[in-house]
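WARN no homologs supplied; continuing
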Amino acid sequence: MKVGEVFLLALCILGCELVGLVGARFTAPAISGWYEPLLKPWFAPPQWLFGPVWITLYAMMGSAAFLLWRQGIHRHAVAVALTWFAVQLVLNALWSPAFFGLRSPLAGLVVIVPLWLAILATIWASLRVSTAAALLLVPYLAWVSLAMALNYSIWRLNR
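OK structure emitted
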């Protein structure tokens, strides 16, 4: 890899990790006072697992963005894939303020359903450009699927 590509890879990963930091600013203050006492379904992962999983997923997302970008930003298929990537990243950034910031599982649902669809669209569009990029996003879709089920269950159990 050339120096410029290493820099672009680092930039893509850093950009995605920063989205995670934005979410953490809303999440951390709500954990002990609001989230912990909520009723949760049997499949809720332990709280300590969320941080490492998201850090890993954001790195994989950034790597996927890099693999797409390096295929040529001016190619239509690349532009479509990166546009979907940007849409899902914005929705990802909105989920924590909706769920934790507003302390509203319903608001979280309003964001996470389109997020899930946008991730699916990103994977689909990425397949036309880079199979590796698309595959890097599959664990993210799986985790958001779990998060969506958890979000829905928390809403149902606590309304």
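Residues 3-157 form one domain.
OK
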